[in-house]
Amino acid sequence: MLARLFKNITRNQVELPVDIVSIISEINNLYLAMEERLANEELQHRSKELSEQIRSGTAGEFLLPEAYALVKLACRRVLGIVVHDVQLYGAIMLYRGHIAEMKTGEGKTVTAVFPAFLQALEGHGVHIATVNEYLAERDSRKMGDIFRMLGLTVGCIIAGMSPAVRKAEYLQDVIYSTHVELGFDYLRDHLVLSTGEKVQRGLYDIIIDEVDSILIDEARTPLIISAPPGSGQQYLFFIDEKIKKLSESHVQIVESHKHVVLTEEGMDYCENLFSVDNLTKQEHSELYHYIVQALRANYVFKRDVDYVIIRHDDGSEEAVIIDPSTGRPMLGRRFMEGLHQAIEAKEGILVQGQPKTLATITLQNFFAMYAQICGMTGTAMESKDELRDIYGIDVVRIPTHRPVIRKDLRDLLFFTEEAKFNRVINDIRRIHETGQPVLVGTADIKRSEYVSSMLTVAGIPHRLLNAKHIDEEAKIIEQAGAYGAVTIATNMAGRGVDIKLEPGVKELGGLYVLGTSRHESSRIDNQLRGRSGRQGDPGYSRFYASLEDEMLWQYYPERLLDELENANFDLLEPIPRKRFFKGISDAQKQVESQHFFMRKQLLAFDCVLNLQRLAMYSIRDALLETGEVHAKLTDSIPDVILNIVQGFFSNSAESFNFAGIMAAVRSVFPDRRPLKLEFQDEVTADTITVSLASQISLIFEEITELCGESVHQVERQAMISALDLHWMNFIEAVEEVKKGVGLQAYGNMDPYIQFEKEISTMFEEMMHAIRQDSLRNVWLQLQRLRPNVAC
Ligand SMILES: Nc1ncnc2c1ncn2[C@@H]1O[C@H](COP(=O)(O)OP(=O)(O)OP(=O)(O)O)[C@@H](O)[C@H]1O
Predict the structure, then answer these.
(1) Is 12 in the pocket of ligand 1 (CB under 6 A)?
(2) pLDDT in tens, 644-695
(3) From the alpha carbon of 498, which atom of ligand 1 is closest?
(4) 2, 64, 67, 118 from 61: Cα distances, Å
(5) Within this chain, do residues 680 and 727 fall inside the same structural domain, yes or no?
(6) 575 and 606 co-located in one domain
(7) Which domain holds residue 117?
């Protein structure tokens, strides 16, 4: 009775919330009116007017009924279908930023067109992410005509497209792609050298199809872009070997900062050694960085003082940092920025930590960049808490258009795999003989092949999916509803693919889905079931499991196993009692909670890094956009000098070493002109800095003025390359800290807080290093442009 107050019945006899029903009636009334009045050409005109209204500030929600009526009409005219009220309900929830749980086969692809249209009217470009490229391509093609009828353009991005093509596609109103391509484009856009090379135009709205698969199943693996080969082990050994040939006049050592720089002579010598024209050029920045680290490893960092080589029982050797304050080896820690690798190369032991990561992000943090995410799937309710906790989105269950009449039969649980598969084959034969089509789901390709060989022996014709070509698979699965068809696929295959029943098959009971094992996630099992019983079709599903299946072998509850041992059941027959089936869902729950923990942990670490990533990317973007960085560089001179000078004051103010300071300053600003120290007040790090900074700034201005217009280009490149290089090394170092934090128990300290603390300090240090390297690179390059000026 109470529910009646809040619910209402639509024309399809489905209960929906009252407010939604009134919006849906408005849409349907407008649709009916438009159907009579509006010719195809007028749809575009109307959508243009809506777009103008939205852009001039009218709320999208206010225009939703009319916009959705237009889309409904376009769907009718393009696809010949009348969109159901439940689909409109899903579409409204999507626009409001929710996850719409719509059962498989309910027509999610069309549903997504509605919010995409309304969001696209704002003019930012809406992304629709699918689980694979086949679906992105298919949906952009199939739905493309609807958008075009409404005057919008549609793009599709798949792997292998050139940046120019991508860029053009991203300019469309609605862009279909995979989450992977979208994420990698985002990362790649932060590695380009000019704004013009970026392909995306911002992240605004995204609609994620099969949202649970993307936000949950895929979320344990972050997206990573690795550096191209060249930074591999052999390369480091090669550099180390050459560096060992340098003599004293080639290097200047700054002990206090444990730093080494090349003198002019050293620079020339190295350019000869490595056959490059100018080491300070952008394209050689990585080589230059490795050279510097090799120099530090060889000239400053000493074995048994700064690090030890530990030999493990298996004969492997490891360079371990010595804690300068306690003298103890710091297991699991590594020097930052490629120095550790340089030391490993110097010592001739295995270089660890390659290849280098250029950029990385978790899917969770990537999606968090969008102004709004929403999505649809057949299976989200099981994960609604996680989706709310991590992404802050709610799941709304959308009723089906017609009742689901598929019969989900009780699992059959066997003691052994052999007994299970024998029964599977017998059951397939029995069903196949009636002409009813069977879709067999397996845990992996190996098992698919095994079932296939058994069916061949049994003389049952079938089609086997090889999981190598998603598009071919999809085409085969589409035909799995044909009379007498037996199709074998992995459980994951065919998600999002529509299986149409051949005429006459409904009368035979529809598609029979037979799962040969339970997946670790019940959502994946439900996806497999959902290949059958679509849009009110009849169908059957049944899962077969054995205690030898990988998941049950590991996680089936001990207490039930003990009981089974004493029960004296027939080993070749299914285990009879219902209570033993519960062990299957218990096992699934246990694995799922483990995976949840791993995702949470990955996210917790990435959230810390995310703040730095955002800061870094915005600095980089600003650099690309302004183009003019001279003021920034000049402003950073005092900071850089102060950082150097403070190094000399850290121990005791009295014992500061003027010659040391000068050498360190000159290593960053290599200039032969004399520098004076003039003080008004007492001698402090600040007064020394003020005095040196004003002189260096003057020289810097002189050099830059003489070099003319080319200065801007040199400065910008130097900053970007310093930024990229240090950021790449920072990411690598973060990984090491993560491992270290995981390995060591910090008393009672929370590992994330510890991690955050270490990362923040490292970030500060990196920013200093970036400023310093940018200035040094610019200085060196400008001197080369006008060698007669400075030295
Ligand atoms: N209102 C409708 N009337 C008739 N057919 C429809 C309607 N909406 C969608 N369809 C059709 O239903 C089929 C299933 O649609 P779709 O593949 O989008 O389902 P789905 O919900 O995405 O399924 P899955 O969960 O398996 O991905 C398609 O052939 C589509 O054209």
Answers:
(1) no
(2) 888 777 655 555 677 778 888 888 887 777 777 776 667 777 888 888 888 8
(3) 17
(4) 28, 5, 10, 9
(5) yes
(6) no
(7) 2-225+363-397
Instruction: Kindly state whether residues 174 and 63 are assigned to the same domain.
Output: yes
In a domain, 103, yes or no: yes
379 and 330 part of one domain: no
Alpha-carbon gap, residue 94 to 376, rounded angstroms:
8
Smallest CA separation from ligand 1 atom 1, residue: 83
DSSP letters along 169-192, please?
HHTSSEEEEEHHHHHHHHHHHTS-
Which ligand 1 atom sits closest to the C-alpha of 82? 1
Considering the domain architecture, whether residues 286 and 415 belong to the same structural domain is answered as no
CATH at residue 248: 3.90.1440.10
Amino acid at 407: K
Atom of ligand 1 nearest to the CA of 500: 29
Q: What ipTM goes with this model?
A: 0.97
Q: Which two tokens stand for residue 285?
A: 């920045």
Atom of ligand 1 lying closest to residue 497 CA? 26
Closest to 595 (Cα-Cα) out of 175, 64, 104, 216: 216
Q: Are residues 368 and 486 located together in one domain of the fold?
A: no
Name the closest-CA residue to atom 15, ligand 1: 107
Q: Which two tokens stand for residue 240?
A: 């180390």
Tokens 């077969």, residue located: 544
Total number of domains constituting the chain: 4
CATH number, position 508: 3.40.50.300
Nearest CA to ligand 1 atom 17: 498
Pocket test for ligand 1, best of 71, 81, 94, 135 (most atoms within 8 A of CB): 81
Residue 34 within any structural domain of the chain: yes
Task: State how far the Cα of 224 lies from the Cα of 780, in Å rounded to an integer.
Answer: 33
> What does the alpha-carbon distance between residue 747 and residue 169 come to, in Å, rounded to a whole number?
53
C-alpha 109 – ligand 1 centre gap (Å): 7
**Span from the CA of 135 to the centroid of ligand 1 (angstroms):** 13
Does residue 413 share a domain with residue 371? no
Q: What is the pLDDT of residues 148-185, one digit of tens each?
A: 999 999 999 988 888 999 999 999 999 999 988 999 89
